[in-house]
Design a protein that fits this description.
Length: 125
Amino acid sequence: MRVRHLHRTRRGSYEPRRRVRSQPARSGPCSAGCLTWPGVPGVTLLGAAAHLMPPAGLGANMAMLDATELALALAAGPDAMTAVLSGYETAMFERGAAAAQESADIMEILISPAGAQGMLEFFQQ
Ligand SMILES: Cc1cc2nc3c(=O)[nH]c(=O)nc-3n(C[C@H](O)[C@H](O)[C@H](O)COP(=O)(O)OP(=O)(O)OC[C@H]3O[C@@H](n4cnc5c(N)ncnc54)[C@H](O)[C@@H]3O)c2cc1C
């Protein structure tokens, strides 16, 4: 998100100047909780803001991958911002959904009665 799209609140935090409408996906791999949204010029999300997922060891890695992919795309095409953000979001939605689904599956094992045995079998697959 560009700085000019944010404003500083009295409490010192930053908020978007205008709301970006996002929606939970209702089916498919995104049912694990990730969001999609129609493109907004000059604005995007990455990391947990884009694809909050259960803590199963993927979230920080996905956030760093998002940052790297977005930075590389912006550096390669600084004059084509809308196309760059669209390309980034298309790929990010897909990998974010897959990671969210995998995290949800792992969490399901962790909290199941099988517990540790289930995790052992997961790592032995
Ligand atoms: C218990 C637990 C264990 C985890 N274990 C792992 C693990 O082993 N491996 C892994 O890869 N991931 C793990 N994760 C997930 C990982 O912590 C997150 O995916 C990662 O921190 C997301 O990074 P982020 O930068 O997108 O968001 P965050 O780390 O949440 O950073 C967002 C920052 O923005 C600030 N902020 C929020 N709103 C505002 C505002 N309005 N103005 C200014 N600042 C604001 C927040 O204070 C925060 O510092 C775990 C998460 C939890 C909860």
